[in-house]
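Q: My labmate handed me this sequence with no annotations at all. I'd like to see what the chain might look like in three dimensions before we decide whether it's worth expressing. Could you predict it?
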Amino acid sequence: MTNIPASGADPAPRPVRPSSIRWPGSVHRPGSAEFERSATDWLFDLAPARWRHEQVFHRNPLELACMVRLHLDAEILVMQAGLKALRTALLGAPRRADDTETIEAYIREQAWAKAVRGQVRLVEDALHLSAGRTGRKRVAWRIVNGL
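A: Here is what I predict for the chain of 147 residues:
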């Protein structure tokens, strides 16, 4: 099976390399007075809307970052599974005009989720370092990140 590229796009999304990950534009740099607030606002924009009602995420932006990253990990897996299922369903079936567009949408969404996950990881790491100054132990963070 081959990837069907979007018009003018590369044939397949490139893996996100650490050097290609950019700091999110709407998040102030770590150490600034607005860092934590801007990081929290940005993370809530990426999270399911219902998470804004969870007060624990307002109090603990590092937990929010971890949950958003895990949510993006799940989205990436779902896009992989959806694309595989679609391609399997299309084997031997007559092609429709929307098939190519649908495959392209899966590929774009997966690439977007991978890129944003890299940005979330940068912010999560910065929040972790910021929280480390307070002396709080991050056992759950270490377990989830395999440390």
